[in-house]
Amino acid sequence: MGFSHFIAQTDVVGQGLFVILVLMSLASWALIVTKGVGLYLRQKRSQAFLTFFWNATSLEAVQHEISTHGVSEPFSHLTSHAMHAQAHHARYGAAKLEEAGSAQEFLTRTIKKVLDEETMRMESGLTVLATIGATAPFVGLFGTVWGVYHALLAIGQTGAGTLDKVAGPVGEALIMTGVGLAVAIPAVMAYNWLTRSNRVWGARLDAFAFELFAFLSTGQTLKNSTDAEPGRAPAAVVPMKSQA
Q1: What letter does residue 73 receive in the DSSP assignment?
Q2: Does pTM surpass 0.85?
Q3: Chain-centre distance of CA 77, in angstroms?
Q4: Per-domain boundaries in the chain
Q5: Integer Cα distance of 46 and 174 in angstroms
Q6: Using one digit for the tens of pLDDT, what is the confidence trace for 133-176?
Q7: Of 182, 193, 198, 178, nearest to 32 (Cα)?
Q8: CA-closest candidate to residue 11, choices 149, 140, 131, 136
Q9: Separation of alpha carbons 243 and 3, rounded Å
């Protein structure tokens, strides 16, 4: 009597539910590993770029760094698109409908677009983790109910209702609930961890976008720009909405 015996004795429905739980577990762990490694690399590369950006002597040095090494994280991605938008509008003006408005308005739309893209990229896969965490216990519970039902039918047919005849099959059926919980718990913990990390990095990206807009618009630091032109730069940037 045990887990292997339960899987061997159960019908197609019970085995199918077990296969579903296994696939759920594989999918959740693949996402956990992939998103975890991606988060670590994003943090490391973002910190390196921010250190370089704020210690650069000019925007040309930043542009050269991006052109040489490319973009590999959200902050350089945002900086590259913002600087390109500013240069493009200064050279060609509002040549198309998407470029309509002043240079600051076009820069604001470009920054917001990149923020939305980065939000979607950071939140990709989290829906799958949330779904697995929410449904795996119920899949396991259904497997338990199904196993108990067949165990009771078998006991009823044999007429042996003693404790030793009932406890074994029912105990085996409860294994499916344990499997469901084993699949769900890591998925829920990883979902909460990634959601919290994305919220923190989303807030940092919002703050950087605020600084970047002010710097590209005025050529000054944020403090100086707000002193010189109160209320203009801060009102233009729309913050990125991080996942609740």
Answers
A1: S
A2: no
A3: 18
A4: 3-228
A5: 47
A6: 999 999 989 888 887 877 777 777 766 656 656 666 677 778 88
A7: 193
A8: 149
A9: 39
